[in-house]
Design a protein that fits this description.
This protein is mainly alpha-helical. It is built from three helices and no strands. The relative contact order is 0.15.
Length: about 70
């Protein structure tokens, strides 16, 4: 999907998605009791971990690319 591609290439951060979802929930979901358990801090932590994983994979790919160009 486009979102997945944007996450992989760094044009979009998972924490941005989480923050958007949290804001939407605060506007619409909270008054409706949309979730039995609401944990925005957990969502942000998971998003930060995902961003770190994407960054790590991106850096590894860059190193491999440079090694291939040097070899």
């Amino acid at each position: 999907t486009e979102i997945g591609a944007r996450l992989r290439d760094g044009r979009l951060k998972a924490v941005e998605l989480a923050d958007h979802a949290i804001a939407r929930h605060e506007s619409f979901g909270k008054p409706l009791n949309a979730y039995k358990h609401w944990a925005p801090a957990d969502a942000r932590r998971a998003a930060n971990a995902a961003d770190a994983a994407f960054a790590s994979a991106w850096m590894a790919a860059l190193r491999l690319k440079r090694m291939g160009a040097a070899g």
